[in-house]
Amino acid sequence: SPADPVIILLETESPYIFSDPSEDLAIISLDENFRDFAFFLEAKGHVPISITDIDTISKVQYGQDITVFGYPFFSLSGIRINSNTESNWRSSFVFENSVSFGRISSISFQKYFFIGDANIAPGYGGGAIVSNNRLIGIVASQSSYALEDINGGIYPNLKYQIPFTIGIKASFIPPLLRQLIFKMNNKRQPH
Q1: What is the pTM of this model?
Q2: Rounded distance between C-alpha atoms, residue 66 and residue 50, angstroms
Q3: How many whole angstroms separate alpha carbon 144 and alpha carbon 164?
Q4: Using CB atoms within 10 A of its CB, is residue 51 exposed (0-12), middle (13-18) or buried (19+)?
Q5: Phi–psi pair at 164, nearest 5 degrees
Q6: Residue 185 is inside which H or E element, if any?
Q7: What is the pLDDT of residues 53-87, one digit of tens each?
Q8: Residue 2: how many other CB atoms lie within 10 Å
Q9: How far apart are CA 22 and CA 74, in angstroms?
């Protein structure tokens, strides 16, 4: 069983929930104070997924086809000026969404993660990993290794990016959602 999540209520009193650091997940509620942002996303054609769209039963299998969604930095298409209100939730940078395709290549990578061969870049982090029209994971990172010089020293801040996706298994999402809903309901009830 995962460790108890940490609940942080910011000045806006909007709940955020974080998993145990080993799972590396966070859920941000778009209810209450972020309702405008939720409406903005829906107006752009984004549709919330149902908890039944999260695959928590099937085992991720070698060779399973995956589609990975993200907003990589190379997809920067413009800069916009935001109002003061919008600057709280909307980036000034405009990125186009990007899609990468691949297959599951390793499932024994710790208990929380799996590796796929979909080529991703910085900006895919937190993006959806989908298979058979169901969410199977969230992008955690891209594989990378430090670059070495000819003497065996390591170049600081330089890494060689490996075209692999490290994904967090989706089975860790529903328990966090249930805990967040429970905490939000308790916050709303008079004490």
Answers
A1: 0.70
A2: 19
A3: 9
A4: exposed
A5: -135, 150
A6: helix 173-188
A7: 888 777 788 899 999 988 776 666 667 777 776 66
A8: 14
A9: 29
